[in-house]
Amino acid sequence: VLENQDLQDSIKPQKVEFHSLNFNTTLHWLPGWAREARDALYFVQYKVYGQSTWQNKDSCWGIPSHVCDLTHETSDIQEPYYGRVRATLARVYSNWSLSSRFTPWRETMIGPPMVTVVHSNKSITVKLQAPHSPYKRKRGSKITMTNYYDLLYQVFVINNLLDEQHRVLVYEGKDKVIKIEDLRPAVSYCIVARMYVPMLDRSSAYSSRQCTVL
């Protein structure tokens, strides 16, 4: 019995946590500390905070992987959720390991916008597109993140003559097409943008840089 108890403890999943980007939400965990824990299989359950019963996630039932997609199960984005995972090895089951409480609307990371740059001789036109959520309208198109938050685009110019890291904020607002004027010809400019959520005072990562020489 003691050996089983030891095995139970040593295969128990560690660090169970939600990761979420634009409401694409996965539950992640680390294997237990025993060396043989790498051969364990895992079982995932989830529930809304306040519910008494846990739901099995069927496609993450007896899996070797350390990640489980719960995007569909956490689609009520204002609700707080919990996830939990247990492991089995050699017919021994660990106890459940519980995640922290996770509320998608509050905690999902918002991704950067898509940026397209068109240049003329003295100006750059920047086209911006907010990231999409995984959720679809009835007609099948994906709903953008601007449906869920009051989002602002922040557009920065990097003048490559000066300094790679020196980003100058040239625009903040909701326009999807902006024009940056009075730029110097024959100079290489790079544009990066990010999404900003005023209500949560949070920013996305920067988009990949789009560079152009006027």
UniProtKB/TrEMBL annotation:
Receptor for IL22. Binds to IL22, prevents interaction with the functional IL-22R complex and blocks the activity of IL22 (in vitro). May play an important role as an IL22 antagonist in the regulation of inflammatory responses. It comes from Gymnorhina tibicen (Australian magpie). Keywords: Disulfide bond, Receptor, Repeat, Secreted, Signal. Signal peptide: none annotated. GO terms for molecular function: cytokine receptor activity. Belongs to the type II cytokine receptor family. The gene is Il22ra2. This is Interleukin-22 receptor subunit alpha-2. It holds the Pfam family Interfer-bind. Gene3D superfamilies: Immunoglobulins. It comes from the Eukaryota. GO terms for cellular component: extracellular region; plasma membrane.
